[in-house]
Amino acid sequence: MPVHEFEKLVNAPASNPKSQIPKKAKALRIIKPTNPYKPLWGFISTSALGLAYLLNQARARKLLEFMPQYRQEVKQSWLLGKINAINQARKVEYAANLDWELWQFGADRAARAKQLSVLSPQEIALFQEQARQQAMLEQGLVEQSIEAPPTLPHGTPGTIDDITQPSDKIVGGLPKSPEELIEALRAECKGLYKLIKSHPVRIVGVQRTGKTTLARKLALIRLIIIPDHSVVAVTPHREKGNTYPSVFDTVGLKRTGVRDNVAIANQWMRFYQGIQNSEHTNQTTIWDEYGSYGEAIGEEKLGLVVGSTLRESMKFEAYPIFVAHGETARFLPGGKGAIKAFLDGTIRVESVGEPVVNAENGLEEMKPTGKFQATFLDGTVIHGKIPEWLTEDFLLSLGGFGQAEHSVNPSEPRSTQELNALWDNKVGDREPAEPADPFDPFYSQISSEERGFVVSFRRSGMSKDEVILKVWGTKKGGSKGYKAAKAKLDRILREASID
């Protein structure tokens, strides 16, 4: 059998060049590789090993970063635990000692009571005398142990009156006359003293800083010091606890508490006509909430007054006081020209308050301090503070102003007998009249007119719902107005002893 050619080459001696594979065949890729994906596998395995190594190094670095913080937290928790344990042990010890002292006190008291119960009155008196003598002896020992104070180098100082300079003493107490009030203001509040007779004043500041209070006090001072002076207060709102005294002529509100724009506009034009006619009005006009007068007065009428009228008002003894929340177009009525003339022609007085925390609800709110800063037309700036003794009640008493004497409405009855007497004398058996306008059911204060109408309607046999409808204008139902009116009705009837 013939041998294959390949077998011949295999069995041929190594010296045969045909049986030798050239070295260049492998380098030149003459022979194809047995695994073509070997480089890809090598790259993937190398990448995986490298990523694992990098993740291991990052984890080690993070552990090194967290180790000190963890050690600190462990130390702190251990220290806090020790402190809490010590505090708890002290509390337990204190409670145990207190319990023992209370028990010992009770035992001693019981033993003393038992001892006194078996003693005779003579023995008890002897025991008390011995205790008194022992107490006096201890007191004497204490007094002897107290050394006398060393003598001062300049001698005994004496009493306060001996060492106080006469000029440092307060002589006479509060002012008792307009002259003394002027001297007191000149000495203690120069800014308020210079505002008594001055150019028109504008009082500005944030809410609840005492702007209206400052205006009221300034007007009352003028009312006391300037002879035959009068005050008109124009206000578009009614605020509980912040009302004007009855000695002022209040304008701007209807009887029901609604704003009266017609009355505000008429007072504005009355002020303007008085100056144009050269009338010496000798009057202070408070324009409260001045920024809300744009709707009532109008831009044209505003321009008439804030132009040349404000600068000439002092000639005719007209002293307006404007109360506003700010000094920009947002807070002042009129156009740019009227606002500029108003700012240039009035003395700027800024009331200063301070934020305080309400003890009842824990909220922060503004509180008046009585401080103010007055900037006059010549650029002079004066910082002042209203003295604490200068209250509205003091000024009313100094001027001799009685609230009932100057009140527009008659004085309210203080008792059931007085109310019945007013009913018998003034109303009688006449047909009860109806109010021209309904009253405000949400206003907390009850006027004498409201009381009169309610009592007259109820005594005439009218039902409570009809009385509420006629007096406060609210129909029966579950509305807030009806509930408020019913509460006022029940209060009036209860005070008048009427079912």
Average predicted confidence as pLDDT = 78
Number of helices: 18
Q: N-to-C SSE series?
A: HHHHHHHEHEEHEHHEHEEEHHHHHH
Side by side, the strands of the main sheet go 3-2-4-5-1-6-7-8
> How much strand?
5-15%
Structural class: alpha/beta
What is Rg?
48 Å
Describe the structure.
The chain is an alpha/beta fold and 499 residues long. The protein folds into 3 domains: 38-115; 183-406, P-loop containing nucleotide triphosphate hydrolases (Rossmann fold, 3-Layer(aba) Sandwich); 416-495, no CATH class. Helix content is 51%, strand content 10%. The protein contains 18 helices and 8 strands. It has an 8-stranded mixed β-sheet with strand order 3-2-4-5-1-6-7-8, sandwiched between helices. Strand 7 (364-375) and strand 8 form a beta hairpin. The longest helix is centred in the N-terminal third of the chain and has 80 residues, at 38-117. The radius of gyration is 48 Å and the shape is extended. The termini are far apart. The model is unreliable at 152-171, 403-412 and 425-431 (pLDDT under 50).
Write a brief structural summary.
With 499 residues, the chain is α/β, with parallel strands linked by helices.
Please give the structural blueprint.
Layout: H1 5-11, H2 23-27, H3 38-117, H4 121-145, H5 160-163, H6 178-188, H7 190-194, E1 201-204, H8 211-225, E2 230-234, E3 249-251, H9 261-276, E4 283-287, H10 294-297, H11 299-312, E5 318-323, H12 336-344, E6 347-357, E7 364-375, E8 381-385, H13 392-399, H14 403-406, H15 416-427, H16 448-459, H17 464-472, H18 480-495
Parallel strand pairs: 1-5, 1-6, 2-3, 2-4, 4-5
Antiparallel strand pairs: 6-7, 7-8
